[in-house]
Design a protein that fits this description.
This protein has seven helices and 13 strands. The chain is of the alpha/beta class. It has a single domain, classed as Ribonuclease Z/Hydroxyacylglutathione hydrolase-like (Metallo-beta-lactamase, Chain A, 4-Layer Sandwich). Strands 1-2-3-4-5-6-7-8 form an eight-stranded mixed sheet. Helix 6 runs antiparallel to helix 7. The radius of gyration is 21 Å and the shape is globular.
Length: about 260
Amino acid sequence: MQTVGRARCVRILVVLLLVCSIYVSVSTTLAGPVNAPIRLADDVTVTKLAEGVWLHTTYYDIMGLKHVPANGLIVIDSRYAIMIDLPWTDKQTGVLFDWVAREHKAVIRKVVPTHSHIDCAGGLAEAHRRGADSFALQKTVEILEKENKPTPKNWFTERMSLACEGIRIEPAFPGDGHTIDNIVVWIPKRKVLFAGCLVKALNARNLGNTKESDLVAYPKTLKKVIESYPYAEIVVPGHGQPGGIDLIEHTIKLCEGY
């Protein structure tokens, strides 16, 4: 009887362990990044998303809102790095450049703002001061020039490829949406898609700032993104928690409200 009792206990324990492992797996998938953010300053954090790929999140007071977070990526391979979207300010940009140099013994050589707004291109002057080259959609360059703001040094019209040692990134313009110049950046080796402000986080209840949006083209552009990057495992929005393709599907549903 004792042997039977022990066997039953072992079976129960195995079932409980399987349930717990499934729960942890599902929770991790729903929660986004499993690594804890590292705080570099009161308004700057970094979080590891994949090997050599770091999410940077910076905070800024704008339009009457306090501590608005904005996302970007830093792709690091050996001695060099690429920054996708710059922080709101030059000071925040300097903090990230210093962190890459200090902790990774690398230099950010290239930066890519995904559209012209301050949460993507705010720190461009500091990046140039640090010796980084810059790349953006032609429309982004034209908009920043008209606004008399620092402008990227290189431009493309549809897509391009940039190398960071052994990792390649692919900026591309999928169509109008959040703005007429929003691009996405694909990191094929890591299956990470930086969708920027074109895509909203799962907890977003609306499209946010639509003053410069093309609400007719928006859902069509999002469907094109899904078709172009079906193997994306991590999708990073401009604001809020990363997730999967479900972020893009969620944003398409939000478009229906307009």
